[in-house]
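FIELD: query
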Amino acid sequence: MIESFLEWLGATPWSVALLESLYVWPLIESVHVLTIALFVGTAVMMDLRLLGFAFKKVPASAFTERLLPWTRAGFVLSFVTGLLVFYSQPVRYYHNVFFRIKVLALILAGLNVWLFHSKIHRRISQWDLNPVPPRAARVAGMVSIFAWALVVVTGRMIAYNWFDCDLQPQPDFVNWLAGCVVEAGVE
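FIELD: result
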C-alpha cells in the first residue's frame, strides 16, 4: 500500500518536473543544506551550553531566547525542503537505508526536544545561571548532539547509497532493512 502510494506520488507531474528541473532541484537541495547548517549550528551551540562546555557565563534562558527563533526557522525551512527532496523520488528514498536511519534519528531528536522543552526547560529558573546545568539538561544536550550529527551524516550518505534495491545480489539483512522485494532466483 505504501509502495503503491509512493509510486503514484513519484509519477505526478510536479514530482517528475522537480526531479528533472535544471535549476529548481539544485536550489531546493542547496537551501536544504544551508538551513540544516543554520538549524544544527544553533542547536549545537545550545547543546554546548547545556553540557557546560561553552557560554558558561550566559544565562541559559537568555541563550535559548536568542537562538530559538533561528533554530526554529532553520528547522522549518529544512523540513519543508526535505519534504520536497523526498517528493522528487519517493520510492528511491523510501528504500534507502540511510534515509530510514535518518528518519529514526529525526524521531529520536524530536522526542529529545519535546522532553527537554516539556520537562527540563520548564525548571530553567532553578539552574539558569549555573555554569554546569543539571544532569537531565546535560543528557538532553548529549542526545541532541548525537541525534543531529546522525541526521547530518546519514543525510549526506543518502546520495552515496550502496544498498539500492536495484543493486542485487545483496545480503538478506540489507534487503530487509531497505524494504527491498527480491524475486526468487535474483540472488
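FIELD: remark
The chain has a mean pLDDT of 90.
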